[in-house]
Amino acid sequence: MTKPMDEIRDLVSRRAVGRRTETPVPLVIMKGTNPTSMLPSVYEPMLCLVLQGSKCVVIGDQAMHYDSASYFVSSVEVPASGQIVDASPEQPYLALSLTLDMAAIAEILIDMPDDVVVCSGACFGVSPVTPELADAFLRFARLIERPQDVRVLGPLIEREILYRLLQGPQGAAIRQLARPESRLGHIRRAIGHIRTHFDAPLRIDELARLAGMSASVFHRHFKEVTAMSPIQYQKSIRLHEARRRLLAEAGDTARVAFSVGYESVTQFSREYSRQFGASPARDVGRLRDRMAGDIELVEG
Question: 112: helix, coil or strand?
């Protein structure tokens, strides 16, 4: 497996421009030349394949470390904090990020045997790369330098990558999330509702009805999937959205706090400082300085 991973790393190293590089295929190249502090973000369903260096991701109270020849998967939208641990200008952190297309996964499941494994844990994790997954990723990465082949070959190889992923340790959770009628599919529906209505009061009974569960069962399963309670999840989504709004446009803290659903500016500032390690004004100023130096808040 070393040879395919080495070839992917060399190709990605040639193509990486700055912190984040879009490619002709649905792969994003991530590069870091120095270790970082914990950077909060909201991870969409995605797969991150590490090629060089290492990273730590914290979701809820769970910390996961992954390095070369391993991959991280989040099959549900979840607030997280990521930190590049091992990186230098000579040997930068390098990774590939692939957004998980649940519609494409659902199509693949039609041709696969029914999944008899029930997932009852978190819908994120780290696993070692298999030779089959490495080979598929190598052929997908080669298309970065063959854009004329992407339209025909890209969807076929992406489908193979998703198929290999479904066969791996994270496959049970991804299968259930791709099936709307499954228990985890119902939790994902509730997650979508929270993200859409994050500025409204959280009503557990309403979310439980949406998921087709009792309030107590819903609360337990939600925490198993996301590593946080529904209230913690909503709070994190509110704070990330407030941070985005403060960065995107000049505005006073009170206006932003009220716009994301807070009724108390004092409470907002206190929870913001707890989440991001600094007051809103100081944090935003620090982020603008970082972004000016090409240090972005990114996944992968």
Answer: coil
Cβ-based neighbours of 89, under 8 Å, separated by 6 or more: 33, 34
Tokens 């000016």, located at residue: 292
Cα distance between residue 211 and residue 180, in whole Å = 10
pLDDT digits (tens, 9 = 90+) for 38-55: 888 888 899 999 999 999
Q: Residue 279 and residue 257: Cα distance in Å, rounded?
A: 13
User: What does the alpha-carbon distance between residue 54 and residue 85 come to, in Å, rounded to a whole number?
Assistant: 6
Q: Tell me if 209 sits within 8 A of 231, measured CB to CB.
A: no
Tell me the average pLDDT across 128-143: 95
> How far is it, in rounded angstroms, from Cα 76 to Cα 192?
10
What is the rounded distance in angstroms from the CA atom of residue 102 to the CA atom of residue 176?
10
Structure tokens at 296: 């972005």
Round to whole Å and give the CA distance between 111 and 115: 12
Whole-number pLDDT of residue 18: 87
pLDDT tops 80 at residue 114:
no
Q: How far is CA 273 from CA 138, 195, 214, 276, in A?
A: 42, 21, 34, 5
Element of type H or E holding 7: helix 2-15
Strand partners, 52: 94
Rg, Å, the chain Cα set = 20
Q: pLDDT by residue (tens digit) across 153-187?
A: 999 999 999 999 998 888 887 887 777 677 777 88
Neighbours of 191 (CB within 10 A): 23
Q: What is the distance between the alpha carbons of residues 57 and 38, in angstroms, rounded to a whole number?
A: 8
- Distance, in Å, from the CA atom of 56 to the CA atom of 220, rounded to the nearest integer, reads 26
